[in-house]
Amino acid sequence: GDANTISTISRRFDAPKDRHYTRRSQATLHLEERIVLPGRTGRAGPTGLYRLAAALTAVIVGVMAIVTAVNVPLAARLVVENGVAEWLQVIFLAGAGVICGRLAALARASGGTGAPDVLLAAGFAFLVVSEMELPTLLAGRITIDRLVREVSAGHPRQILFVVVVGGLALAATVYALRHLPELLAWARSALRTDWGRLFFLALAILAVTELFERRMNRMMAPMGLPRPLLEETLELVASLYCLIALRQRIAGRYR
């Protein structure tokens, strides 16, 4: 898998007894072996990466709260479809994807498979494409019922969409199953790091936001707030977490 912390292992053995070791007949030599592990990178949690994440979260939430309190229509324009918030998410997610692509290339160059980073790069590419509404340009407004009807009716754009998305999903699933032990080992190792915990927190936020998107939007409407305000704010925070976590990870390779 990928590595971020350098661990040093010392092996002790007795030195040979000859004239070069007259003062230390039982001297010990230390042989250092450098092993790349997915361990901690940078400074420890609350004084480093977590503090940075907390500060950036406060900035994002504070700005959104102030704008909403002062000018609700302006806040609505910030979180509208293809608005400022979504394009910032695209930038952050694209940056995270580029880092994963770089890490995959480094892993393969050193003889590894780079499987975790290949899948992460593909996942970030999917998120970027989704945020940019490219599937809508290809297949129109997508709902399962409508997609089934239009594919059954033989609409070429919708058929092409299903073939492309289905093929990519199948390829990713097969690839993940082939490298499942490596992926599980990588995940366990990442959870022992500050960047890894922040990264998995970001993924959890994105997943929860996707699952409860409609409920969140309905919560905002009765309060007179823009419907996507909570959803877009959470997604923006999570996207930023992905970027700074992976930036910390790749930075650790060169320390």
User: Structural class of the helix and strand makeup?
Assistant: mainly alpha
| Amino-to-carboxy terminus distance | 18 Å
Estimated helix fraction = 55-70%
Mean pLDDT comes to: 79
Neighbour order of strands in the largest sheet: 1-2
Please compute the radius of gyration using only Cα atoms. 24 Å
Question: Mind explaining what this structure looks like?
Answer:
The protein contains eleven helices and two strands; from the N terminus they run ββααααααααααα. The protein is mainly alpha-helical. A two-stranded antiparallel sheet has the order 1-2. The longest helix has 26 residues. The N terminus is likely disordered.
Could you give the topology of this structure?
Layout: E1 5-14, E2 28-37, H1 49-70, H2 72-79, H3 84-109, H4 115-131, H5 134-139, H6 144-152, H7 156-178, H8 180-190, H9 194-211, H10 213-220, H11 229-251
Antiparallel strand pairs: 1-2
